[in-house]
Amino acid sequence: MLPKRQILHVDMDAFFASVEQRDNPALRGKPVLVGGLGGRSVVCAASYEARPFGVHSAMPMAEARRRCPQAVVVEPHRGRYEEVSASVFSIFRRYTPLVEGLSLDEAFLDVSCSQSLFGSGAEIALRLRADIYEDTGLTASAGVATTKFAAKIASDMNKPNGVTLVPEAVAEFLSTLPIRRMWGVGPKQEPRFLALGLRTFSDLQTADPRLLIRALGPEGLRYQELARGIDGREVIADAASKSIGAERTYEEDLRGRESIAAEVLLHAERVSRRLLEQDLAATHVVVKLKYADFSLLTRRRTLREPVSDTGSIYASCIESLGQMPLEGKRVRLVGVSVSGLAPWVRSRSLFPDHAREKRERLEQALLAAGKKTGARITRATLLGRP
Ligand SMILES: [Mg+2]
Q1: What is the pLDDT confidence band of residue 351, given thresholds at 50, 70 and 90?
Q2: Fold match between 1-166 and 171-227?
Q3: In this model, does residue 322 exceed pLDDT 80?
Q4: What is residue 384's predicted lDDT score, i.e. its pLDDT?
Q5: Does domain 242-384 have CATH number 3.30.1490.100?
Q6: How many C-alpha atoms does 10 have within 13 Å on its Cβ side?
Q7: Residue 199: is its pLDDT beyond 80?
Q8: Looking at residue 382, what is its pLDDT?
Q9: Cα(368) to centroid of ligand 1, in Å?
Q10: DSSP alpha helix (H) spans, the chain
Q11: Which of 114, 145, 279, 309 could serve as 359's disulfide partner, Cβ 3.0–4.6 Å?
Q12: CA-CA distance, 196 to 192, in Å (whole number)?
């Protein structure tokens, strides 16, 4: 007999803010906002003490500080969050290899086949939360369900530091939820649903499918299935889906190919450093631009073999940039990311690219030297490249 399908969604509580409070006792018990102070900065995380003031992550920092002027603003320490995240994810992997990370602090785990070893999904959720607390001093919340969708919704229901078990009757459990809790329904889409008389999941469960298709397109049926607790999506283990990226929103829009290329180079360098630190190489390179009108454009290139050095990542980005409209455009965000990750091996090909291998070795040496001296490695020489 197949084991009962059990999916966990585990989400750290106010992750970045909690790490800051853990590392700095002076911040404990206080409203803390993690994020920059620049005019366009957004809140990356808000501690639970800040939330009663209506502050939440992704809110513009200026607005958050208006609502909660007594909050302490802390610059993000991304490296530290990544370290803690790595410990948390290694705890997840004690219980199942099927871990799909959604961000540094959030993952789906398929523990269906782990139950004979570790107990039911709910027991596993309790155990791994205890492990996380013991190893990191931080709390997490979890949802336990037979589907990803229900598990994700459930993890949010008893935050912070709670576990929510979704009963077999998923549809009934979901029925009273307001429609804005539906996956993909943000504040922007909510009025469309309300206009159709869809205020709760129950309304969506019983709505006429023809009405849904007419008003929402084919997605309308997908929403109805989810509301009824039907979700066949599998948990996809990380290595295949993982990506490493760097991006930045600028105080002032960028104009012109050269200034954008210069930012791409900085990102390529950061991405390369993180690949090398983890002994990884990547096959896909993605450039992302957000224009002043907030439209997004991405270009993805697949390389002949995995790379990890700044030069190769940068060269791929420059080729992509060549196909992206830049003349007369204002760009507010530039991002570079890589995926298709595999362990870095020295010679991957019958006809190895010796020049690239040399660059990779050089970067690894620079990285090691930088670590010793704490110096930042810059790569001004690459700026002259096309
Ligand atoms: Mg979280």
Answers
A1: low
A2: no
A3: yes
A4: 38
A5: yes
A6: 32
A7: yes
A8: 43
A9: 32
A10: 15-23, 61-67, 78-95, 115-118, 121-136, 148-155, 170-174, 190-195, 201-206, 209-216, 219-227, 238-241, 257-277, 310-321, 354-373
A11: 309
A12: 7
171-227 CATH, one of 2.60.40.350, 3.90.700.10, 3.40.640.10, 1.10.150.20:
1.10.150.20
Q: In what order do the strands lie in the sheet with 243-255?
A: 243-255, 330-343, 280-291, 296-307
Ramachandran sector of residue 141 (left: φ over 0; alpha: ψ -120 to 50; beta: rest): beta
Each residue of 206-251: pLDDT tens digit? Answer: 999 999 999 888 888 999 999 999 998 899 887 655 788 999 999 9
Measured between alpha carbons, how far is 270 from 275 in angstroms, rounded to an integer? 9
Please state, for a pLDDT cut of 70, what percent of the chain lies above it.
Answer: 90
Tell me the HSE value of 182 on the side-chain side, using a 13 A CA sphere: 35
Residue pair 164/143 in contact (Cβ under 8 Å)? The answer is yes
Q: Say how many Å lie between the CA of residue 115 and the centre of ligand 1.
A: 25
The tokens describing 65, both together, are 């500080």
Which of 115-129, 228-242, 287-301 is predicted with the least confidence, judged by mean pLDDT? 228-242
Report how far ligand 1's centroid is from the alpha carbon of 232 (Å): 24
Burial class of residue 33 (count of CB atoms within 10 Å of its CB; 0-12, 13-18, 19+):
buried
Q: Residues 6 or more apart from 57 whose CB is under 8 A from it?
A: 42, 43, 44, 45, 46
- CATH 3.40.50.720 correct for 1-166: no
Least confidently predicted of 19-33, 77-91, 150-164:
77-91
Annotated catalytic residues are: 106
Distance CA 20, CA 16 (A): 6
Furthest C-alpha separation in the chain: 66
Distance 285 CA to ligand 1 centre (A): 27
| Cα–Cα distance for residue pair 231/68, rounded to 1 Å | 39
- Could you tell me the distance, in angstroms and rounded to a whole number, from the CA of residue 122 to the centre of ligand 1? 19
What is the domain partition of the chain in residue ranges? 1-166, 171-227, 242-384
Residue 246: beta bridge partners? Answer: 336
d(CA 180, CA 206): 17
